[in-house]
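Slide 14.
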Amino acid sequence: MTVLEVIATTVADARAAERGGADRIELVTAMGEGGLTPGIGLVEAVVEAVAIPVNVMVRPHSRSFVYDADDYSVMQREARAIAKTGAHALVVGMLRADGCIDTEGLKCVVEAAGALPLTFHRAFDETHDLFVAFETLSAFETVTNVLTSGGKASVLDAGETITRLVGMAAGSHCTVLAGAGLGVETVAPFVASTGVRAVHLGSGVRVGGQALAPVDEARVRRVRALLDGLAS
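Slide 15: predicted structure.
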């Protein structure tokens, strides 16, 4: 079965995604900025409202993915607070100025997260070499998902890269989570052609396909049915 992750920014979004058949929520605020850390009250409310796993963004600002010591201090505080809510996982991403994964920064957040697994978000797509970056992240046992568009604005333009990354992930603890540009009409063919087993949808399952609109339960349900059809 293909895992379906849906972005939520409100409790209503999360409930609609769950009713539509999403397997998992990525909870963020400021979706128009690529997603920032939501308030702890929202995290608690969403965790209480749905039975499916809730993965929570930990991103202190949208200036860049290169963080200083103060940023990491904030991220550690947020990670520790979110870990107490019953959230399933954290969503993080950090780079060095040279375009490599900031492994030292990642270790800081891993330590603060305790037992929570991590998704490494699309900061991954800004690394200088996606395949080297994936190997780097695979060395972290708690990094269980890497969200990627294959280095392109739309993942639909990166089929070969996604297929290669899926091959690298085979048999490991780390799953390739394909996102950016997927919609109701494109998700099933993309999954079938690349072999990816986890997809991440935002605008594609929102009312009118608009990033700041509410989650459309009917669109989520349609995507779920199409993905399930691939397995039958």
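Speaker note: The domain at 3-231 is CATH 3.20.20.380 (TIM Barrel).
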